[in-house]
Amino acid sequence: MNMIQGLDMDTIAGDSDGNQYLTFMLAGEEYGLDILRVREIKGWDNVTPIPNTPKYIKGVINLRGTIVPIIDLRQRFSLDAIEYGPTTVVIVLKVNSEKGSRTMGIVVDAVSEVYNIDEESLKAAPDFGQAISTDFVKGLGTVDEKMIIVLDIDHLLNSSVLNAVVDQATE
Fold first, then answer.
1. Does residue 5 register a pLDDT over 80?
2. Separation CA 36–CA 24 (nearest Å)
C-alpha cells in the first residue's frame, strides 16, 4: 500500500477525477496542489547543499537512487525563513517541463488535508500588474469558508534559473 503520512494514495488515486488537492501550510496560509503529482511526503532531513545557488534551493537528497533537488517554498515566495520543526515536511513531486518530467521536492511548514475542488469553482488569481507575477497560481478555491491558493506546480518550479541549477545539481 502506498501511504503518505496516513493518506492512502492508492485509494485517493483510484477515486480521483483530477480535482483532488493536497493542501499544505506556509506562513499561516493554506496552499494546494494536484495530488496526482505527489510522489511522497517525508519529514525534513539534512540535504547536500549545492554551491552558488539561490537561497531557496536548499540542496539535493538521494531518494532511492534518484537525485532530488529540494526547494524551500517559503524562500521561493520571499516569506520570512523559519527554523524547521517537527511538522516541517518535504513534498516530493513529479514536475513537467519542456525537457520532460523530473522529480523535485518542496519544503513546507506542514501538510494539511486533501480536498475535492471542482475546476469550475476555482477563481482566477488577482492581477497585481507587472510588479507581481501570479502566473504560478492556478486559481483560488474555497473549502469550508477558507481560501485555498491552488498552485500550478509546473509553472512555479520551471523558471530558467531554477532549471539551470537543477540541471547542474543532477548531472
1. no
2. 15
